[in-house]
Amino acid sequence: MKAWIWGLTALLAAIWTGLAWGTAEALAWAAQAVNTGEAADWGRTAAQWPVPDWLAIWVDPALLRWGQEAITWLVDVMPSSGAMAQQAVGWIVGLVWLGWGLGLVVLLAVAGVVHWLVARARRPGPPAVSAMRSTP
Fold first, then answer.
1. Does residue 130 belong to any structural domain of this protein?
2. Which of 111, 94, 108 is nearest to 20 (CA)?
3. Predicted local confidence at residue 116, as pLDDT
4. Is residue 133 included in any domain, yes or no?
5. Which domain holds residue 95?
6. 25 in any annotated domain
7. How far apart, in whole angstroms, are the C-alpha atoms of residue 87 and residue 38?
8. What letter would DSSP give residue 48?
9. What Rg, from alpha-carbon coordinates, does the chain have?
């Protein structure tokens, strides 16, 4: 049972680490895309996409148009905030790794408590006293 606990903990820790690494890399990539102007091109292209018919069934087309207009506004604001975005990414990536560390500490603490509880439950106790008496 203890091996299962720590195996599951290792699996969750690996997934948690992968998510943190992926988030940090995605943030760095996004900041680079903002600095090079690629993000503005992608935003303009996305804002011009027609709303698919299947999506209009699930989401109000006016809401989707509003989202496209928000993307267009964001694209217009991006060039002036490129350097600031690059600087902010450094802080945000640091916060991502801080969150990763805190999450890993919590995960290990929970695994340690579960390990302790399992060990305590399996510890042999005093012999049970039988309530049955032999009658003559």
1. no
2. 94
3. 93
4. no
5. 2-122
6. yes
7. 18
8. T
9. 28
| 9 within 8 A of 107, measured Cβ to Cβ | yes
**Which residues 6+ apart lie within 8 Å of 55 measured at CB?**
64
- Using the CB atoms, write b or e for 106-121: b if 16+ within 10 Å: ebeeebeebeeeeeee
Please name the residues in contact with 47: beta carbons below 8 A apart, sequence gap of 6 or more. 68, 69, 71, 72, 75
13 domain residue, yes or no: yes
Question: 65-115: per-residue pLDDT in tens?
Answer: 888 888 778 777 766 666 677 778 888 899 999 999 999 999 999 999 999
Query: What is the number of structural domains in the chain?
Result: 1
